[in-house]
Amino acid sequence: MPIISKRRIGSITTAVVAAAAVGLGASACTPDTTRARVEADVPQTFANSYALSEQLQGHSATRPDVTSTECHSSVNPAQDSGPGSWACDLTYTVGGKQEKTELLVLIDQLGCYQALGEKRDATITDKATGAVLPDPKQGFDGCYDVYDGRTSVSKK
Amino acid sequence: MSSTASLETPTATASQLTQRRPGVGAVYGVELGKLVRQTKVRVISLVMIAAPWVFILLVLHQDRLPLETLYGRYLKTTGFATPMVVLVVAAQWLLPLIASFISGDMFSSDDNHGTYKTILTRSVARGSVFWGKVLAALSATVVLVLAIGASALLAGLVCVGGQDFISVGGTLVSPGAAFADVAVSWLSVLPGVLGFAALALCVSILTRNSVLGVVVPVVVGLVCQMYMFLNAWDTVRHLMLNWTMTAWRGLLDDPSYTEPLVRGVLVSIVYIALFVTVGYLVFRRRDVKEG
């Protein structure tokens, strides 16, 4: 007599398939691009890119302190989630002076983005190589972890 | 005595023959040699290895940079950006093609030449033939992918220089750490590439057709890549081999994260195990008498 009957194997298989379907369906409801992930990553990468810009120009690597960030999806305004274009407003302090910038963030389906500032065609000269480069603080790339716990898409 | 000797001699000879029967290593060496001697493999390898040099030289001779590609904006800043831009493009379109090209006719070529009947009934065990061919295809794929990565890195360092690298998060990385970042990134795509190679091997066994062995995995790769660009279910995207080849972005971010890589490796292992198992079962049961 077999240790596990065919009926039992069928039940187990059905349960596993059902659990997998529920898991797949549940996780399919959580988008990769959420407002929480965008608002966590963009200001951090902006601050890094600002410091990188200063460093490449031969200045001291001044890192701005981003005090507030607000990002919204232009494609899906009903629920701030999903790839496409996003608008991010950042307020930051650098050298004791408060500044504001507005970024157009183009997010792809892979959890990466290209952020463009108001002076997106601005260039800098790399002091080390002499090459003329796009200014990192006016245009930078970034990626975020699509498996982290920042799944909130709620609007403020 | 003579009768005893005449009885013992054939037995000993059969035993010696069994012991001398070539194993996986011998088949691996023969198959690898066959791959290396193929003109199409040599030409494709040379073109792929030369392509990064042509690419970076063209970029340096124009004013605009490919800003829409990750690391494209840093191509003139540091030589370490070259292998990363090449990886972004290759992972989308070229690496599945390379895997299919090498593995797609590994089994079907012997079908076309009718050599299985000779090999399997006289000299080599079926399992040895299977594993020898699989290992030859997978190792050749790995070597070619890493050679392209090394060529791209060398092209960047020679044409642009070994300046500090820039992480995905926008921080400067020393050249020593940059070298490790580039190496880890290229190594991280190997499980996904081997998944496509395993698919090509499986199709090659199932269809016994070299054209289908190459074309089917390429078409599957293209369809999956098109799905990757759609704003469709993210969970389905995470289960595709193409997705596993983007996991390096997390490793190069600041702060870095490894979950995409871990999940990608697991997904790739499932695909590899599935395709190799199906291929093995079909190959084991194949009737070789028909040629």
Brief sketch in words of this structure:
The complex is a heterodimer of chains A (156) and B (291). By secondary structure, chain A is α+β, with helices and mostly antiparallel strands. Chain A is built from two helices and seven strands, in the order ααβββββββ.
Q: What is the fold's blueprint, element by element?
A:
The complex is a heterodimer of chains A (156) and B (291).
Chain A: H1 6-28, H2 35-56, E1 65-73, E2 84-94, E3 97-107, E4 112-116, E5 123-125, E6 132-134, E7 139-143
Antiparallel strand pairs in A: 1-2, 2-3, 3-4, 4-7, 5-6
Chain B: H1 2-20, H2 24-37, H3 39-60, H4 81-103, H5 108-113, H6 116-123, H7 126-159, E1 165-166, E2 172-173, H8 175-188, H9 190-207, H10 210-229, H11 234-238, H12 241-244, H13 248-251, H14 259-284
Antiparallel strand pairs in B: 1-2
Helix pairs in contact in B: 2-7, 3-4, 3-7, 4-7, 4-9, 4-10, 7-8, 7-9, 7-14, 9-10, 9-14
How would you sum up this structure, described in words?
The complex is a heterodimer of chains A (156) and B (291). Chain A has helices spanning 6-28, 35-56; strands spanning 65-73, 84-94, 97-107, 112-116, 123-125, 132-134, 139-143. Chain A has 156 residues and is an alpha+beta fold. In chain A, strand 3 (97-107) and strand 4 (112-116) form a beta hairpin. The model of chain A has no long low-confidence stretch (mean pLDDT 84). With 291 residues, chain B is mostly helical. Chain B has helices at 2-20, 24-37, 39-60, 81-103, 108-113, 116-123, 126-159, 175-188, 190-207, 210-229, 234-238, 241-244, 248-251, 259-284, and strands at residues 165-166, 172-173. A two-stranded antiparallel ribbon of chain B has the order 1-2. In chain B, helix 4 runs parallel beside helix 9 and helix 9 (190-207) packs across helix 10. Mean pLDDT of chain B is 88; it is low at 1-12. The chains are: A alpha+beta (156), B mainly alpha (291). Chain A binds chain B through residues 24, 27-28, 30-32, 44-46, 48-49, 51-52, 55-56, 82-84, 109-112, 114, 126, 128-129, 131, 133-134, 136, 139-148, and chain B through 65, 67-68, 70-71, 73-74, 76-77, 161, 163, 166-172, 228-231, 233-238, 243, 246, 249-250, 253-254, 257, 259-260, 263.
